[in-house]
Amino acid sequence: MKRFWKIFLFCFACISLIGCDRITKDIAKQNLIDKPVLSYFHDVLRLEYTENTGAAFGFGDSLNPAISFWLLGFLPLVFLLTFFVYSIIQSKKLSALKLFSFALIIAGGLGNIIDRIIFHR
């Protein structure tokens, strides 16, 4: 695959996946907040609304808001943007599957940063 198309598809995947992240979070908020747990398939699948203001497993949940911004917002943003630029630069050497995998990581991280910085969640 030509480099231009790899980069185009990589950028398109990042934007699309961030959009999907935003849409599913909005749907979850509209349909699950302040409602009882929804159970499907004899309790194999459960849907319950919860928000995590920290990092993984609530780490940093009680941090000062200024420290939280820098540690859980700005530093990951710098890392993800660096990873994005690296992916673009190395796109000629990377397979399309690897670039798509990178797009999943970048979009997931940016979706969380958007929540943290823009929507203060």
Keywords for this entry:
mainly alpha; 3 helices; 121 residues; two-stranded antiparallel ribbon; 2 strands; 64% helix; single chain
Secondary-structure blueprint:
Layout: H1 3-32, E1 38-40, E2 45-47, H2 65-89, H3 96-117
Antiparallel strand pairs: 1-2
Structure description:
The structure is a single chain. With 121 residues, the chain is mainly alpha-helical. It contains three helices and two strands. A two-stranded antiparallel sheet has the order 1-2. α2 runs antiparallel to α3 (96-117). The mean pLDDT is 89.
Mean pLDDT: 89
What integer value in Å does the Rg equal? 17 Å
> How would you write the strand order of the largest sheet?
1-2
Helix content: 55-70%
Largest sheet: 2 strands, antiparallel
Strand content: under 5%
- The N- to C-terminal Cα distance equals 40 Å
Write a compact overview of the structure shown:
The protein is mainly alpha-helical. It is 64% helix and 5% strand.
